[in-house]
Automatic annotation (TrEMBL):
The protein, known as: L,D-transpeptidase family protein
Source species: Mesorhizobium cantuariense
This protein's pathway: Cell wall biogenesis; peptidoglycan biosynthesis
Region (Disordered): 297-320
Family: Belongs to the YkuD family.
PANTHER family attached to this UniProt entry: L,D-TRANSPEPTIDASE YAFK-RELATED (PTHR36699:SF1), LD-TRANSPEPTIDASE (PTHR36699)
Amino acid sequence: MFMSGCVSTALDVADKANQPINASLVSDMGRRKMTPADPILIRIFKDESELEIWKRNRSGRYALLKTFPMCRWSGKLGPKTRNGDRQAPEGFYQVSAGMMNPNSQYYLSFNLGYPNKLESAFGYSGEALMVHGACSSSGCFALTDAGVAEIYSVVREAIRGGQSSFQVQAFPFRMTPENMAKNRNSPNFDFWKNLKQGYDNFEVTGRPPKISYCGGRYVFDAEFEGGDPRDPLASCPPVLNSENGAVAARDDADARKTEALVASGATIEAHAYSDGGMHPSFRKLLQSRGAAALAKKTSLDEVPISRPEAALADPHSPSE
């Protein structure tokens, strides 16, 4: 029986979930003072169709390890709100070992944990929203089989190293003043400003922010009187710790730059997707090889994959 979302009944696992981390990536970790067992964090950007793996280094900060081009995501920029809307989610998620799926119909996958506590409070619905292979998406983030296998191997070793769960941050686009200015007229703009607070927090501190929910929004790195709020929609209780000055300064500076860009009239209007997106490298493959080729296991050397030292189709999934 086919489940909703992007995962199906179990297939033979074979050795796909136990593939070792690519040797060149292990070398990259060594150069960046990381080990395979060090904790990770994942960031996803819809508009750019990219997925980033960040890893904690010897200093205790997280650094970018590798950027993967996404083969497919469906829907439009904006959050997922209901089952069947074909939207890939946006927000902050926590993925535990039990959410890793070596039996996925889409080669390998992990569940994002949508809806999170805030989304559930809003009454948002949907299930089995995944990062997976097969280059086919209906509400999920899809890579090639080879791409998701490499990501899976890095995640697996971090979990084996003692990381009980890892944070996934899913954004509509890179949260720059330019992109905020381009998308200023979206009905999702206030929501995106809230996401940007978490984006800025990680960019400044180099550490995954602690996520809380109150006042119908995400709150980052806050310690509340009486502990974390239980009702994500209730007003926020008094905060015990002071605001991070560096994070606040960045947020204020970016807000001023966004306002200046809008006032100048020089901003370019945001691109309106009819349905989702695909990294430019895969669009080239789509033109030269056709959609069927993208659904197969694509070798990593067939698709350009960004590395930190470098400058950084029609859907056919029948569900969600």
